[in-house]
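sanity check this record:

:::
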Amino acid sequence: MLNVMLVDDDVPMIKYLTKLISWESLGLRLAATANSGESAMQIFHETQLDLVITDIGMPQMDGLELVAQLKALKPELQVVFLTCHEEFHYARKAVQLDAVDYLIKDELTSEQLDESLRKAIQLLTEAKNQIEDIVYKQDLIKNKDLLKQTYFQQLLTTSSATEMLSYGKRLGINWGHSHFLMAIGSFHRASVYKQYRFEDMNLLLYAAGNIANELSLQSQQQVTLFSDADGQLICVYNYHPNLSLNTTTLFKDYLLSLRELIKQYLKMDVFLHYGTPFKGVEGIRANYKTMKMWQKSSFYEDDTFGAIKLLEIPLWNVNHSLEEQWDRITEAVKDATTNGITQSLCDLETFVREERMESGMFLAACSHRIRLIELEAKHKSEETFHSCLLRCKRLKESLELISCKLEELHAASMHMAIDKKPKLQQIDRYITDHLAENISMVDIADYLFLNPSYFSRYFKQETGVNFVDYYHQFKMKIACGLLKEKQYNIEMIALKLGYMERTYFSRIFKKYVGVSPKHYK
């Protein structure tokens, strides 16, 4: 039902209007009546109104002034003017105020009022549809990137080509041709590390999407950029076969331009590799799967752009450990120069290339050892870094990213070695002497004869972390050493370190080390 307000200083006229037609049969509800412009304004603020029928000639605030104010507050409001005056200038003003109709009281019939109201209902329906359309488009623009990601995931699971093409059109993806080419790519993680925060990855993908859209418009090629669940770039090129054009070359040129523009505007390198042509939107799923398999098998390749080559599935070595190599890297981090880090990473690369270690195992092992170095340096583990490391697609990329992190940890380690103040040394000794106890910040403050509040501020200022994190990191470092020795089971180690429950100890261990005690052992 649409809400209507009648406004007239002539009370009998309002009573006449209420009985002149069947309001409810038109889908209208008489929600309010008013005898002046001022009272109509007050009712308008209290009631949701769709249509106002008002007299023009009223004292103080006439109908024209009233409607001007109402329209300023609610432009889609529909208005029918009702008056005894027939002068043209009134009608002209009513037209300027976008009125539905201008009716003369003395000549008013039920048919006239019915016709005007039907016209108002039609205009209200059209206005409502326009508003809904605008809201839908605004929501679409606002959430388009997320909707495109969802759409791509549906392309990988839904077999109905007709359904997916129809849904794509609603997102502005008009794949009207029969043939496709695809490319897969990712940001060089080390270049992300140097320029941005890892938390900015989604924003970078959004920016890359905007660059790709602009380039598609300029090149007049139907290329759509998606991002998958792993934060990778997926380019889909839709085209009509043309014997006079080499579409693969056109797509290659587009990707080269995209790569250069991303480097120019985002200051980042990007890997991009393209596949072979295929027919039908349903082929996207199979080609995406092939590309992902190729990525995994090409971990030890050094190219950053080109055609996807059909590689044999490699025989990964899953028996080798990186403990010896990472022990040398860990010692290098503690040294006074970075030369040792560079050399030890070169040795690691040589070893891994020779042994052809499975990429997932290699990245997981590196992430694990970096967490231990972070623990040693009292450096809070950056989860977004480890997430990026585990998603690296090339050995060179991962080693460059690791090098950046190790240089950072090396600086933190040197700072701790140089600036370990006597009071902090006292704190370390106190924790060591009371390993089997569950001590608190208040215990330490009492030991140092300091106010707990002052101690909390002092500790954070000197170490850069709060006491609880420092305390657990200190104990987890000892726990790692005890687990390596393999003299004690996990329950005994937990008790030695003051953790009465194994589950709680395991939760704390995983938080600061990155893996469970059982997995570490």
User: Anything to note?
Assistant: The longest strand covers residues 179-187. The chain has a mean pLDDT of 84. The chain has 22 helices and eleven strands.
